[in-house]
Structure formats: structure tokens, C-alpha cells
Design goal:
The structure is a homodimer of 559-residue chains.
Chain A (H helix, E strand, L loop, with lengths): L3 H20 L4 H22 L26 H20 L3 E2 L5 E3 H4 L21 E3 L4 H11 L6 E10 L13 E10 L6 H16 L5 E7 H11 L6 H8 L7 H11 L4 H11 L2 E2 L1 H8 L2 H4 L2 H19 L6 E4 L12 E7 L18 H11 L22 E6 L2 H6 L10 E6 L1 H15 L11 E5 L5 H13 L4 E3 L7 H11 L3 E5 L1 H6 L1 E6 L11 E4 L3 H8 L4
Parallel strand pairs in A: 1-4, 6-8, 12-13, 12-14
Antiparallel strand pairs in A: 2-3, 4-5, 5-11, 6-9, 7-8, 9-10, 10-11, 14-15, 15-16
Helix pairs in contact in A: 1-2, 3-6, 3-16, 6-13, 7-13, 8-14, 9-10, 11-13
Chain lengths: 559, 559
């Protein structure tokens, strides 16, 4: 039975549901249904506390028992999955020789200010309690750039990853899973190297990770800022419109060309013919043969920037071929990515599971989606943040990409405060949408049913078949722990048999080690495999006491 | 050569050194030395920037490039060690079937308020930017209690660990390594079980972890609040003085008995004879035989609380014997622990390396140490926080214990807002001083020299013995990554041989795989073991190209 505190927490939640429905102008009957549930909860609370069910439901609680808005607790079964995901990802980072750093959760306010454009209003500040003014980190890119600016001469070349929480005072569309505290997972290679080698490794590593996570089929869209810039120039886009037109192109994965063209011409004042020339290019997608094709395009190759980009792409494809991941890559001239600071290749991984719904033309009355709103903001003033465009908002689940990144050769220079080569540390990186990957993999686990809800990987349950035998169970458990075998037993002097089996079933523990008075006297012990093909009444194995640990280690594949 | 930004960072640091020396009234010549270093840094900066070296060193920098006061970056080699420590600890938590949870880095302000006594002033608040008032978490205990109060019926029994950063606006004695952001590592068993079983497991697990970390010899001091309460009662301490006298006893590891007696009688108004009776008891230390001895003590056994405590201890010792860790435990009647909320066993692990210096009587003029100041605050008003007493300040390095904890059966009830059994979730736990353990193990690694400074565990460096052979190196690296072998190569088309060996030596990479034109033609490849007994000029192995991966896997023990 729920406690008063739990009821209070549920009342708060249910109140939010009701308010949300009202705000969304939901059907009256839907609202009424949820109001009734709220009433029931309040009545249940009143029964426990003896207090009358009041309108706010507050009298009974000493304080509101909840987490702050936009944050949540991670429960054990979520953590179990999250840790397995992080472990798989970091194992691959480390295969590639990456190191990790950790930076403080808050930075001096002035380090963050001026880095995120209009989104600076979403930064959490710490209260001025005397001393320095600080803010919670908004992403991991700016702290990394700050770290490099401070320690660049110690790390002229660094391949680093960082998995950590970041903070944004977004008005969360909570029903969409948009959070104010969420994880980012960044991998970056900083330093001067021969061309395209780090870029190719970022892409190969992304394939390795997405394959290891078994998220299903995926494609990495690839483009190059210099090709885009050249393309816009030869199509006749005025220099000062290149960014805003690029940002319009970036919406082609969510909007049909007609809408994007309209934005270019009507909103942004681009000549219709120029837009049409762009339209011819940005519909192009393909593999290395597209690079060759564009290299034959006399108009494009008249532009120096485009030629540089195409040379990069040709070299990159050569390396991707060696890494065996060309088939995952789609050279896609419509990929633009929202951010100003990219200077070379850009890429974005999409999966079937994470792909956005087919583009629809919004009617004038339609409420823009958060992604659209975001894109609009970006269109006005692109922000300085790798993860802030709609494609890689870690906190929005079910739309967009699972990883994205690119080359940004100028960002660190902004922090080191120096112009020219001295302050310049070229970087290329990839950011994995770990919150989204978590949601995809949780859904998959729930559909498959076999892992969902599991919170740990206990291998052996030490149970008694009679008379408690607590001390014997403790001895066995200690022996198993010493041998590195994950083991538990019931903290009862005389546990009941069904209760013990209940734990085994619930936790799906693969082996039950059974101690019984008869076998104890004989110096033997019994193992009952609980899960998998060995399961079944007739599969108990009786063995000498001293054979237990070696037997289990062999069964568990650790010999 | 250092950049202007780096020089600025060093100038800020050096400025702090100088200010600290001045504040500490250090010898003039020591101050002068550091002032000169500061001057040199400023001159170096002036050379780069062309700006005159000004008093504050600020003009040249666009902003101060540093982390916030009391926080720091963790560099790659520190992270490498930190991750290995955390992995060893969590592996053992998981052996015991523990799950983990994660809570937000900030909580509603009202959740934290009123939980930490006078130390509430050290809580970081977030700025009121509209919406809820929030604070950064101060420890992991209160968020866990809040989690249990919200989700208790889902987790009536839970064995959980949590490793995460906490935040305290302490005036940091930075030179002592006292930080405002630091890690805590808590393991707790919550729920109703048969007596002393979870308590024994906490102690066994603590031994297992400290042994696995190889921190050298250690002792776990053990006592029981009910015994202490009984002891104070039979000695004649008035009910209302028990807490404050207990807090005086707790200083016996840092102060001689005479000083503690003085505090009891002069400061706290205890009768001298009562103090002397206490003195007879608190000098007792021993093993299970001390439990038997006290059970013969007619004065003590007249007290119900003492008898309950002694019965617990007898049962606990029986279980500790089964777990084979009695020899690590010292039943020590002088251990009191600072916190109000303990209700049963209390314990604290000390190592030779972490033991405090021998107690000295401070002269009246002596400046109190932070630990003493803390103890004084506690003496006045004990705070509601497992880790806040001087013995387990995670942020103070070089003094005190490496782990501490105890049983606290009433804390969760404070959050669930319910009296009696419904809101009561008994808990027992242990908190590891991971920052201190890190410092101890870093020092050890530096002394041994073999691991210090290493930031990753790359196993193979793929190098070219001639003509670059970039593509061949990439192919080999990809093959190794696919086989789960940690591999790197130089991101250069034509790397120089000495440069490649430099990396191998610096990173202490155990195997160099060498490709050369001649062997490529023959279809062979060469491996040169770089570290360990196989090292040496004559130990190169030439093998068929396809034998490389199996050969390496066998050498790396992964067959």
C-alpha cells in the first residue's frame, strides 16, 4: 500500500497531467477522466492522514516530495541499461586510444557568456552568495575548448571523450521527454594531423559504436561546409545570405523542397532562379561517385572552396573504404547542420527507429514543433554550440539523429584569445545522442521482454532447502564473492522456500545453489540452473562442496 | 612554449600562492621567492602580448581563464586512475548484488533545508530565475532518503550504491586539497531484515574493497551507539548531555584523554568523577573477547540499551567470523562518530597511510585545524549528514579515515513525513572517501613510477618501417579494433621512425606492429614487444599477416 508521501508525489504528477490537458485544450471527457483520478488519489490520501481532501492536496504533506522540474531520478533498472550503453561506447572510444577528462559542473559565468547566442537565456546561474559568479555547464564543448586553451601546450594532440550531464533552463515539453538535466557524450580529436585522418576515424568509430549498440540499420549523412559554401556562391547567393540560406537547406529533412524554397525566396529575399539552382544541387545524394560527378561540374569547380571540399571528400572516401564503412555513408548535399562554427566535414547519423516522420507542410495555424521553433531561432542567430540545433537536441526523443558532429578548426582560438596559428587548435568530433539512444534501446528491451526491468546481473542465489542454514549460506556466499561470482542470499535466519524462489524468478538469476541438511552432512551441495536450456526439474546437479566454485566458473565462462 | 592564455592561468595560480603565504604570515624570504616567480610569469606574458606587465596581469587576457574556486579539471592521467578505482569498487558492489541509482545534481531547496544544521550555510543555491528554488546536492544521503520516501513501496528492500559529485561552499583550504566539488561514494542497504546481516555484509564488503584497492594495512574501528548510550547513562551523564559528551569522545583519535576530559568538565560542565568513569571505558579496545568482558560488567548490563548493543555485537562478531574479517576489526569504545542520526553499529576504516598524526595538545594560541573547527561546530550542533564530520570529510586529504558509516534507522522517516513503522525504512551503509583513496593511490603510483602519468591502455602501436605505408597501417588498425585490441597509429602519411618510437616509449605501449615494404611483399608482418621481459633488440617476431590478430590476442591473454 502506498504511503502518504508516495500519494502526495502521485498527486503532484497527476495535477501536472490535468494542467497539461487543460493547457492543450484537450477534449472535456479526457480532462474529466484525469480529474477523477486526481480526486481518487486525494481521497486515498485523506483516508491515511485523516485530513480532509483539500483542493491543493498540500496540507497533509510537510513538503512537496519531488525532483525539480525537468530533472528525474534514474531508477535501478534504467541505470543498469544506461551503464551497459556507456560501457559499450567507452570501450570503443578506448579501443581507439581515446583518453577522458572531467571538468567541473559549473564554470565561471564569463567563460560561458557570449558562446550560445540567443540560447544564453537558458543557462542556469548559481546564486551570488559572495565570491565568483558561476553557471552550470550548458554543453561539453565550451568546457573542452576552455580546457584546451588552458592546457594546450601540454596536450598539442588529444583524442578525448567526455560523458557528463549538462543543464538547460528550457521550458520543457515534459510529455516529449525534454529535460533540463541530461547527458551528453562527446568524442573529439584536437590537434594538427595529416588531412582527413581524424575525420575518417570519427566516422569509422561512429559506425563501430552504432553497430555495437545494435540499434538496427543506420545511415550517416555526410557533407562538407566548403562544398556548401562553394555551391551557394556559384548559384549566386550573396555572401551575407549564405548562413541563413544554409540554415534553410538544413530543414530539408523535415520539410519538402517547396516549403524550403518559399522560405528562401519569400522570407529571406533570395532570387527565385538562385533558389532553383540550389534546388538542383541539394537534391543530390550518393556515394564516392557523386564526388567524381561534382568534380566534372565546371560551374562548381570554378570555385576554390568547392574544389578544396571535393578534394577532402575524395581523400575521406579513400580512407572510409579502408575502414570498411563506405556503405554506411550517404554524401548528401542537403545536410547543412545549424551551427556557424563548422569549417569542414559535417555529418549526422540517423536510424530507422529515430528517423523523423515524413515531412508535412504545416498549415499557417499549426503550432510549430519544438524542433521547428528551435530551427527558427537558429535561422535568426545561429548559436555557438555543437549540440543545440534541432537535429541533436539530446533531450528530445523520437525525432532526428542519434549522433552528429563535424570539423571546427576555429573554436578553440576564441578561448585562447589569440589570433593565428598560436591559438588555433583544429578539432573534429562527434556527439552521441545518448539520451535518445537510451530511449531506443529501452524500447527495444521492453519489446523483447527479456532484459527490461532487470537492475543487476546476480549470477547465483544461495538458498536453503531446510532449517535455515544461515551460516552455511553465508560461507558459500563469501566463497563465491572471493571467486568474483555475483551472489546473493536471503537476509533471514529461516527463509521460506517459495520466498527464495520468488527472488530467483523476479531477478532471473541463472543459478540457484541449494544447501540442505542432508547434503551438508554428506559434504555435497546442489546447483539448480534456473534460466536457459538447462532449466527443468531434472537438471539439478549434486556435487562435492569443493567442486562448486570451479563448476560455476566454468559454467559462467570464466573457467 | 606556453600561450598567453596559459601564462594568464599560471599568473592567477601563482598570485594565489603569494596571497596564501602572506595570509599565513610566511617567512619574508619565502614570500619574496614566489613574488619573483610571479614577476617572471608576467614578464613572459608581456613579451608575447607586447603589453606592459601590469600589477593585476589582467589587461592582456580577454577574460580570466580558470576553473571556479574550489573546482578543478581532472586531466587524462588522473581520470585513468580514477576510473580504475571506481571500476574496482563498483565491481565489488555488484558482486554483492547492489544496484545503482542516479539523482539530479540539484534538488528543491526545501528538500535540503533543515537537514544539515549549521552547515546549511555551505549549500549552493541556484539563482532564482523564475520557477522553483533549487540547491546543489550537499551529499548523497539526503537525496537517497528522498528517493526512498518517494519510491519506498517499489523498493521495500534495496541495496544500492551511488558514486557522484557533491557541492559545498566551504572556504576551501586549497593547499590542503579541500574542494567545493568532490566525489562521494555511498553503499547502503535499506529495508527490514534479520538482525546484523546487512551490517555484517557492509563490513565484509568494506574489507573486500580496501583489500582490492591495495592501499596497505587497514583497521576498521567498530562501536555501537546503544552501547555508548548505555555507557554514558551508567557513568552518570545527564540525558541532555549525552550527545555533546559523545561528540567530545569522538575527538580521542586526535586529542589526548586529558584534553577531552577538560572539554567535558570545563566546557561542557560534566562532573569530574563522571568523566573519569567514562575515561575507564573509552580506553577499551579489542576483539570479540571485549564483548564477553563487557557482558560480565554488572554496572553496564544493568542498562537495557547497553545489553541490546552488546547482543548485537556478539551476533555481528559471529557473522564477521564467517566472513573471515574479524582480524580487520577493532571494537573500540572511543569511536563515537559525529552524527546524531546513527542508531546502531558505527564504524570507520583507517589505514596507516591515512592515519592522522599523533595527537598533540594544542597551545591556547594555536590556530585550530579545519578538522578541529569542524569538530567544534559539531560539538555545538551536530549536523544531519553522514559525511560531514571531520572524520569523513571527503575533501580533506591526508588526515582521518578512508571509509565510514553505520546504521541509521530513523532518517528516511523524516522525509516520508510519517511516524511509526509505515514511514520507517531502517538503513545501514558505508561511505568511501574516494577523493582520499584517489590521493593515496596516486601517491603510491607516483612512488612506484610505473603507472603514474599513464592516461590510457593502448596495447598496440602500428608503425611503418619505411615509405609511410599509411593505408596498410590503417588496415591493420581497423583489423585490431574489430578484434577488440586497443590500437593506434600516427596520423601522418610519412611518419618519421624516431617520432613513432617516441610515442611508444611515452605511452608505454606493450606491442609495436611494424609494417615494411619488404615484408608487405612477402605477406608477413613484424611485432616488437616493447615492455616487459620480452623486450630487447632480438625479440622481434616475424609472422604471416593473417597470424597477427590471433598471436596478439593470445599474448594479451584474451586468446
Amino acid at each position: 500500500m502506498a504511503t502518504a508521501a508516495e500519494l502526495n508525489a502521485r498527486i503532484v504528477e497527476q495535477g501536472n497531467v490535468v494542467r497539461k490537458l487543460k493547457a492543450d485544450k484537450a477534449a472535456a471527457e479526457d480532462i474529466q477522466k484525469e480529474v477523477l483520478s486526481l480526486k481518487e488519489l486525494k481521497d486515498a490520501l485523506a483516508k491515511i492522514t485523516g485530513a480532509p481532501s483539500d483542493a491543493k492536496g498540500k496540507k497533509a504533506a510537510k513538503f512537496t516530495l519531488k525532483t525539480a522540474k525537468g530533472t528525474k531520478d534514474w531508477h535501478p533498472s534504467d541505470m543498469y541499461l544506461r551503464q551497459r550503453i556507456f560501457r559499450k561506447i567507452t570501450d570503443i572510444f578506448e579501443l581507439h586510444g581515446a583518453v577522458t577528462i572531467d571538468t567541473p559542473v559549473f564554470e565561471l559565468k564569463e567563460i560561458l557568456s557570449g558562446k550560445y547566442g540567443e540560447d544564453s537565456k537558458l543557462i542556469y546561474d548559481l546564486q551570488d552568495q559572495g565570491g565568483e559568479l558561476c553557471s552550470l555547464r550548458y554543453d561539453l564543448t565550451v568546457p573542452f575548448a576552455r580546457f584546451l586553451a588552458m592546457n594546450g601546450s601540454q596536450y598539442p594532440n588529444i583524442k578525448r571523450y567526455h560523458i557528463a550531464k549538462v543543464y538547460r533552463r528550457d521550458q520543457p515539453a515534459m510529455s516529449k521527454g525534454r529535460m533540463r538535466e541530461f547527458y551528453q557524450c562527446d568524442f573529439d580529436i584536437a590537434g594538427v594531423y595529416d588531412p582527413m585522418l581524424p575525420d575518417a576515424e570519427c566516422l569509422s568509430l561512429t559506425c563501430e559504436i552504432l553497430e555495437a549498440l545494435e540499434i538496427g540499420d543506420f545511415t550517416i549523412k555526410l557533407n562538407h561546409r566548403k562544398i556548401l559554401d562553394g555551391l551557394f556562391a556559384v548559384c549566386g547567393v550573396p555572401e551575407d545570405k549564405i548562413r541563413t540560406i544554409s540554415s534553410a537547406v538544413d530543414k530539408l529533412d523535415k520539410l519538402p523542397w517547396a516549403d524550403v524554397r518559399k522560405e528562401m525566396t519569400e522570407e529571406k529575399g533570395l532570387d527565385g532562379e538562385v533558389a532553383d539552382r540550389i534546388g538542383e544541387y541539394v537534391k543530390l545524394k550518393g556515394g564516392p561517385e557523386l564526388v567524381d560527378q561534382l568534380k566534372q561540374d565546371a560551374r562548381l569547380t570554378a570555385n576554390k572552396s568547392a574544389v578544396e571540399g571535393l578534394d577532402d571528400m575524395a581523400l575521406l572516401y579513400k580512407y572510409l573504404d579502408i575502414y570498411g564503412c563506405v556503405n554506411r555513408i550517404s554524401f548528401d548535399l542537403s545536410l547543412a547542420r545549424g551551427l556557424d562554427y563548422y569549417t569542414g566535414v559535417i555529418y549526422e547519423a540517423v536510424t530507422e527507429a529515430s528517423a523523423p516522420p515524413a515531412p508535412v507542410a504545416p498549415s499557417p495555424e499549426a503550432v510549430p514543433t519544438p524542433a521547428q521553433k528551435k530551427a527558427d531561432v537558429k535561422g535568426k542567430k545561429p548559436a555557438l554550440n555543437a549540440d543545440e540545433d534541432a537535429e541533436l537536441d539530446e533531450s528530445t526523443v523520437g525525432v532526428g539523429s542519434v549522433a552528429a558532429g563535424g570539423r571546427y578548426d576555429e573554436l578553440v582560438g576564441m578561448f585562447s584569445g589569440e589570433k593565428g596559428a598560436a591559438g588555433k587548435i583544429p578539432c573534429v568530433g562527434i556527439s552521441f545522442g545518448v539520451e535518445r539512444l537510451f530511449s531506443l534501446l529501452l524500447k527495444k528491451a521492453q519489446e523483447q521482454g527479456d532484459q527490461a526491468g532487470r537492475a543487476k546481473a546476480t549470477e547465483v542465489y544461495v538458498m536453503s532447502l531446510g532449517d535455515g542454514l544461515l551460516e552455511e549460506r553465508m560461507k558459500v556466499a563469501k566463497e563465491l564473492w572471493s571467486a568474483g561470482i555475483k551472489a546473493e542470499f536471503m537476509y533471514k535466519a529461516k527463509p521460506k522456500l517459495p520466498k527464495q524462489f520468488e527472488v530467483i524468478d523476479k531477478e532471473r538469476i541463472p543459478y540457484a545453489v541449494q544447501v540442505s541438511p542432508g547434503e551438508l552432512a554428506k559434504g555435497t551441495i546442489r546447483v539448480k540452473p534456473q534460466v536457459g536450456k538447462e532449466q527443468g526439474a531434472g537438471n539439478d546437479v549434486e556435487m562435492k562442496r569443493e567442486e562448486l566454485v570451479p563448476w560455476l566458473l566454468e559454467k559462467l565462462g570464466r573457467k
